Amino acid sequence: MMGELSFFLGLQIKQLKDGIFLIQTKYCRKILKKFEMQNCKDASTPMSTSCYMDANLDGRAVDKTKFRGLIGSFLYLTTSKADIMFIVCLCARFQSNPKESHFKAAKRILKYLKGTTNVGLWYPSHSPINLVGYSDSDFEGCKLDRKSTSGTCHLLRESLIGITRSKLVWLSQLQKVSI
């Protein structure tokens, strides 16, 4: 009665003959504008290979409210951009006392988003039904508490999904116990 769904809760939905495409281009642009990064240079990856995040107790503090707002924006954006999940979760660990180094890492994510605003999730309608899962962890990768970070993702019909308690999600989380 209302026509084809094309926009829902910040998600742009493009329904095509051969599948469905989910993207958050408008939301990406809104975040870039909000944090005054719409004219920044693109970054090819969301995280630098030389990035080392720690508590940085001696670093200069930044506005907690602004940093938390940025992290919250990123978390909502992971709905269609699973490629930023790891670094967003890593930055989120420092929300109680963010420093310049943490904000710099978050700005790198914004630079990455600037170059990937048109990247989203593609769900083709005609492909074999295969379920494939991947997982990885970094053994004691956190230098602060020696905990590992685990990550998983699942592909159904060549499309990214995850299955956890009947919810569709992907995962990147710090393990609860030390090894």
- For the residues shown, what is the average pLDDT? 81
Strand order within the widest sheet? 1-2-3-4
| Helix count, DSSP H or I runs of 4 or more residues | 4
* Residue windows where pLDDT falls under 50 for at least 5 positions: 163-168
Query: The biggest beta sheet, please?
Result: 4 strands, antiparallel
Beta-strand segment tally: 10
Helix content: 25-40%
The helix/strand class is: alpha+beta
Overall, the morphology is globular
Based on CA atoms alone, the radius of gyration comes out at: 18 Å
Strand content: 15-25%
Distance between the termini: 56 Å
Q: What is the total domain count?
A: 2
SSE topology string: EEEHHHHEEEEEEE
Structural commentary:
With 179 residues, the protein is α+β, with helices and mostly antiparallel strands. The chain has two domains: 1-126, no CATH class; 127-179, no CATH class. Helix content is 27%, strand content 25%. The protein contains four helices and ten strands. The strands form three sheets. It has a four-stranded antiparallel sheet with strand order 1-2-3-4. Strands 5, 6, 7 and 10 form a four-stranded antiparallel sheet that branches. A two-stranded antiparallel ribbon has the order 8-9. Strand 8 (163-164) and strand 9 (167-168) form a beta hairpin. The longest helix is centred in the middle third of the chain and has 16 residues, at 100-115. The protein is globular, with a radius of gyration of 18 Å. The N and C termini lie far apart (56 Å). Mean pLDDT is 81; it is low at 163-168.
